[in-house]
Amino acid sequence: MSKKVLVLGEAREGVLRNVSFEAIAAAKKISGGGEVVGVLLGDSVQSLGEEMIQYGADRIITVEHPHLKQYTSDGFGQGFMAVYEQEKPDAVVFGHTALGKDLSPKIASKLSSGLISDVTDIEGEDDAAVFIRPIYSGKAFEKVKNKDGLLFITIRPNNIPPLELDSSRTGDIASITVEITNLRTIISEVVRKTTEGVDMSEAKVVIAGGRGVKSAEGFAPLQELANLLGGAIGASRGACDADYCDYSLQIGQTGKVITPDLYIGVGISGAIQHMAGMSNSKIIVAINKDPEANIFKVADYGIVGDLFEVIPMMIEEVKKIQG
Ligand code: FAD
User: Fold this and answer.
1) What is the pLDDT of residues 275-288, one digit of tens each?
2) Span from the CA of 274 to the centroid of ligand 1 (angstroms)
3) Looking at this predicted complex, what is its ipTM?
4) CA-to-CA distance for 185 and 74, rounded, in angstroms?
5) Atom of ligand 1 nearest to the CA of 236
6) Which residues contact 114 (CB under 8 A, 6 or more apart)?
7) Which 3 state secondary structure label does DSSP give 294?
8) Which atom of ligand 1 is nearest to the CA of 294?
């Protein structure tokens, strides 16, 4: 039976995050030829609807309110519930992002629905859809099916490819008015801890530095390589603890979980807690002067050598290739 599926579009500074398009692709599979409805919540999001349609959504519903300018679970919860009540979908897809991880269990429990979180792939369609998700910090995968009734899933960024953008697609963009009341928290200011360039959780290439990088200055060549490859910088907790970089860059069990196309670990030993955050990357390259380093066990390509020699050589080679 074809389904109606709601997808929450996530925007940052007026730009839709890639995971929104990946969520539409997931919703298409679940819908089995039914309807995919994009949901946009914010203070000014109307203009983003068209792009969601071009990536495969059939129509869009927006909720605009000054209290939705910044995410709060109360505000977004009220906005999303209003759309839910109007649409009564069969399934809902969120990104497995900070926002999605906070909001999806809240709404799913309110609706007494189950939630399949951190989905990395979907086999089959419609009622036959089977959801694949990592368990035990990525050491195994489980396949989960929704028994019946309402389905909630969150999808891990960078795993389910978005559909190709089709600029000829059109669809209805409607808005609904919602009173956002009784907020228990109001965000008065957001102070961003900015790092240069691309956001690590959505980056296709991540260059991660460890304690072997030896200093904050030691991260500069890694940043140069990341810039050349259009990638982002990450780090081990060892590097963060040593104050070489900010904790927002930490990858691992107590940091971010990433699945880029290419992860390059530089001067990182490969502790189990670090590998919990990167071992599902598509290609893993490790650079370490110790041939026995644990990270080589999961690496597709290993370079045994001094990172202070290897990274400048890589930068030179990439520059040559890029002309
Ligand atoms: P080290 O283990 O010190 O490794 C440094 C590596 O650099 C060595 O392998 C060395 O051979 C190499 N090296 C040194 N100089 C050079 C050079 N010139 N060229 C090439 N290689 C060189 N860690 C995380 O990363 N993420 C987490 O989320 C996380 N969560 C944790 C949670 C708990 C509860 C605990 C107990 C620990 C956690 N840790 C986490 C810490 C983890 O156990 C390790 O201590 C940490 O990952 C080590 O960081 P590192 O590999 O940079 O440093």
Assistant:
1) 999 999 999 999 99
2) 7
3) 0.99
4) 8
5) 25
6) 108, 146, 147, 149, 150, 151, 152
7) helix
8) 9
Using DSSP's 3-state secondary structure scheme, residue 292 falls into coil
Output the furthest CA–CA distance in the chain (Å, rounded).
61
Which residue reads 């240069």 in tokens? 196
Cα 56 from Cα 303, distance rounded (Å): 42
Residue of 99, 102, 135 lying closest to 119 (CA atoms): 135
With the most atoms of ligand 1 within 8 angstroms of its CB, the residue from 137, 200, 211 to mutate is: 211
Q: What angle do CA 272, 274, 275 make, to 5 degrees?
A: 65
For 175-193, the pLDDT digits (tens) are 999 999 989 988 888 887 7
Q: At 248, list the tokens.
A: 């927002």
Alpha carbons 323 and 315: distance in angstroms, whole number: 12
Are the beta carbons of 114 and 108 closer than 8 angstroms?
A: yes
Q: Which residue's alpha carbon is nearest to atom 49 within ligand 1?
A: 238
For the CA of 307, the closest atom of ligand 1 is: 19
Q: What burial class does residue 131 get, using C-beta atoms within 10 Å of its C-beta: 0-12 exposed, 13-18 middle, 19+ buried?
A: buried
Ligand 1 in reach of 289 Cβ (< 6 A): yes
